[in-house]
Amino acid sequence: MSLRDSYPRITILDYDEPGFQEKQVTNVEECRIFNEKPTVTWINVDGLQTKTIDEIGECVGLHPLVRENISHRDQRPKIEDFGDYMYMVLKMATYDEKSSEIMTEQVSLVLGRNLLISFQEEKEGDVFDPIRERIRTKAGRIRAMKADYLSYTLVESMVDTYFTILEKVGARIEFLEEELLAKPTPSTLQTIHQLKTQLIELRRSVWPLREVISYLERGESKLIGQETQVYFRSLYDHTVQVIETLETSRDIISGMLDIYLSSISNRMNEIMKVLTIIATIFMPLTLMAGIYGMNFRYMPELETPWGYPLVLASMLSVSAIMLLYFRRKRWI
User: Fold this and answer.
1) In whole numbers, what is the pLDDT of the chain averaged over residues?
2) Cα dihedral sign for 245, 248, 250, 253?
3) CA separation for the pair 167, 228 (Å, rounded)
C-alpha cells in the first residue's frame, strides 16, 4: 500500500444557494482557503490519523483535548460547546445483511459558523450519500441554509438509520418467535443472545444521543439558529421513538429468552413424565418376575402346568390396569 493510499481521504463540499464546489484533497493546507468564505463548507475526513487530525485542528483552531477525543474511538455520544465551535460525538450504525450484525462507527462533528467537519473511523461507506446528492442537485432547502442545518441533516440521517435497523431487527424477532414456538434449538438460543447483545450496544449509542439533540434544540448555542431549532425539536421526538422501539425490542428479546428456557424445561418434564410412567409400570412386573425367579425347591406354583401363562397374563393385566388408571387421571 502506498503512502497516498494509507492517507485519510479528505473531501470538501463548499456550497451556497447559487452553486457548489466538490473536490478531494490530499493536503490539509488546501482546506485553509475555505476558512473565511461566506459559503457553507463541509469537510469530511474518512479514516482517523493523528497527524491529519492535528493539522486540521491547527487549521481551524480546535482545542488539543478535542483533537485527542477525535482520535479515541470508544466514546459515548456527547456535545461540548466552545463558543466559536461545537464538538459532537455520535455513533453511526449500519446493518450487515450477510452476518445479520449491527456495526457501529464513531463520527465526530465540529460545527462552526460556516463550517462543518466530520471525522469518520472507516475509509469507505457512510449514510451521508443522500445528503451529498441533495447538495449536488439543489434538492430541498439545504443549499439555502447554513452549516447548522447541515449538521441537522447529518444527525437526522444517523437517527433514520436506527429506524431502518430496528425494522430489520423486528423482522428477525418475528422469525425467532415462530421458530421458538415450533421447535427451539441451541442455535435459537445463540441467536437470541446475539440479538440481545447487539441491542444493548445499540442502546449505548442511542440513549446519550437524546441528551445531545436536547441541547441543540434548546438553542443554548449561538451557532444554532432559531429556524434550525425547530428541526432539532422534531429530531428529538424521532430519537425518543427510536429509544421506545429499542426498549420494546429488548423486552421482547428478554421475554423470548424466558420462553426458550420454559420450553426446554417443559420438554424435559414431558420426557421425565414418560420415563417415570414406564418405570412405574415395570415396577410391579419386576416384583412379580423377581418372586417367580427365585430358585426355591418348594414353591407352590412351580409345578402348575398353567403357571407360566398365568404369570404372563397377570403381568399384562397389571400393565393394562395401570395404563387405564393413568389415562383416567389424565397423566398421559
Assistant:
1) 86
2) negative
3) 28
DSSP state of 142: G
- Which among 169, 190, 168 is positioned nearest to 180, based on CA atoms? 190
Worst-scoring range by mean pLDDT, 3-7, 170-174, 276-280? 3-7
All cell numbers assigned to 102 = 449491527
Q: What is the pLDDT averaged over residues 156-176?
A: 91
Please work out, in degrees rounded to the nearest 5, the angle formed at the alpha carbon of residue 257 by the alpha carbons of 251 and 258.
90
Return the minimum-mean-pLDDT range out of 73-77, 115-119, 301-305: 301-305
Whole-number Å distance between alpha carbons of 253 and 199: 9
Task: Tell me if residue 273 falls in helix, strand or coil.
Answer: helix
pTM for this structure?
0.78
Structural domains in the chain, CATH included, are 3-263 (3.30.460.20), 271-328 (1.20.58.340)
- Give 123's pLDDT tier (boundaries 50, 70, 90): low
- What Rg, from alpha-carbon coordinates, does the chain have? 35
Task: Work out the number of other CB atoms within 10 angstroms of the CB of residue 112.
Answer: 19
CA-closest candidate to residue 21, choices 29, 11, 32, 7:
11
**Helix, strand, coil fractions of the chain, as percent rounded to 5:** 60, 15, 25
Backbone angle region of 45, left / alpha / beta, with phi > 0 → left and psi within -120 to 50 → alpha: beta
DSSP secondary-structure letter at 8?
Answer: P
Query: Do the Cβ atoms of 214 and 224 come closer than 8 Å?
Result: no
